[in-house]
Design goal:
- There is one protein chain.
- The chain has one domain: ABC transporter involved in vitamin B12 uptake, BtuC, CATH 1.10.3470.
- The longest helix has 36 residues.
- Helix 4 runs antiparallel to helix 12.
- With 361 residues, it is an all-alpha fold.
- The protein contains 15 helices and no strands.
- The N terminus and C terminus are likely disordered.
């Protein structure tokens, strides 16, 4: 290897940390990750406290330690814990998926929401709801796989189509985004058609689900998201160093030993599975995958979104938003409305800013 190539390899690797985990162990990233973890735990406790049935902090702690009354156990473990744990899992999945797609495309606009992956998962899930009467386990043809599997199939097909149409000897991030926007609009139209043709009960269930809410989440759907996180997160973290190097472009990445196409396929599959799991559990909670990685990146002051910090920031946004709507706002407001109110202005601001470099590097 030439001296210049060796210098580029040295520049591509993190200043601190191991070759395998890339930016994962940089000091400020670690601090931000720990802070986000503490905030998630605090917001989770607030989420358990929030609700129409008043519980004190002592009541919750006592119940968690096994000393609560039967009524308190019902409220904590059966009603509020699935919502809180589900919010953490869904937010983490969306935050990590957004960090992967934004880094892969080297563009902050490249999120599962905009690339059509969320819409593909939503279409699959709406098909399950509308064609199977709204049950979690459905019973005809492919739909016997269940809601999470159907959502994953829809997301994978959409990702494959968008990626294939974007390929022109390489993937240009702006072409990828434009095709993703078109796919999102098309899939949204098909979803609306299915709801329009459905029976009133199925249409109402699908419409309520599409807003993005944790109100109907159950332990069955929570375990599905947690299982995906448990499997996908280590795989994503192992891609951290390659994500750093990929910011240099395809040619330099190949020269530095990265199998670019294999790396991209792994990253896309990870992001798709995370998105599908989150959407199948709570519906499409918009803008979390877009906002969380950017907040984490700015807090950590690094060139690209840090993976674990982005995941925890996504959990902060979802759990915090849900605790807010239950503890402050009147009535049952879906958390997806709150994230849209926060995320949409940020998207507008980003689009109206002076054009930045496409690469995070």
């Amino acid at each position: 290897m030439s001296a210049s190539m060796e210098a580029k390899r040295t520049a591509a690797e993190p200043v601190e940390g191991s070759r395998m985990f890339g930016r994962l162990w940089r000091g400020r990233v670690v601090v931000v990750t720990v802070v986000c973890l503490v905030v998630v735990i605090g917001l989770g406790m607030l989420g358990i406290l929030a609700g129409s049935s008043a519980l004190t902090f002592g009541d919750v702690v006592t119940t968690l330690l096994g000393g609560g009354t039967s009524g308190q156990e019902l409220i904590v473990f059966d009603l509020r814990m699935p919502r809180v744990v589900g919010g953490i899992a869904v937010g983490a999945a969306l935050g990590l998926a957004g960090a992967l797609t934004q880094t892969f495309a080297r563009n902050p606009l490249a999120t599962p929401d905009i690339l059509g992956v969320t819409s593909g998962a939503a279409l699959g899930a709406v098909m399950a709801i509308v064609l199977a009467g709204g049950s979690y386990s459905v019973g005809a043809g492919l739909l016997t796989l269940g809601l999470p599997a159907v959502a994953a199939i829809g997301a994978l097909i959409t990702a494959a189509v968008v990626y294939g149409l974007s390929w022109r000897g390489g993937v240009d991030s702006y072409r990828l985004i434009l095709i993703g926007i078109g796919a999102t609009a098309t899939l949204g139209g098909i979803t609306s058609y299915l709801i329009n043709r459905a029976q009133i009960t199925e249409a109402a269930a699908a419409a309520q689900w599409l807003v993005g809410s944790l109100s109907g989440i159950s332990w069955a759907s929570v375990w599905a998201v947690l299982a995906v996180l448990l499997v996908v997160t280590p795989i994503a973290v192992l891609q951290s160093s390659n994500l750093d190097i990929s910011q240099l472009g395809d040619d330099l990445s190949t020269g530095l030993g990265v199998a670019v196409q294999r790396h991209r396929v792994v990253v896309i599959i990870c992001a798709v599975l995370l998105t599908a799991a989150a959407v199948s559990a709570s519906g499409p909670i918009e803008f979390v995958a877009f906002v969380a990685p950017q907040i984490a990146r700015r807090m950590a002051r690094v060139g690209r979104p840090p993976l674990l910090s982005s995941a925890l920031m996504g959990a902060v946004i979802v759990v915090g938003g849900d605790a807010l709507v239950r503890g402050v706002l009147p009535g049952e407001v879906p958390v997806g409305i709150i994230t849209a109110i926060v995320g949409a202005p940020y998207l507008i601001w980003l689009l109206t800013r002076r054009k930045e470099r496409e690469s995070y590097a």
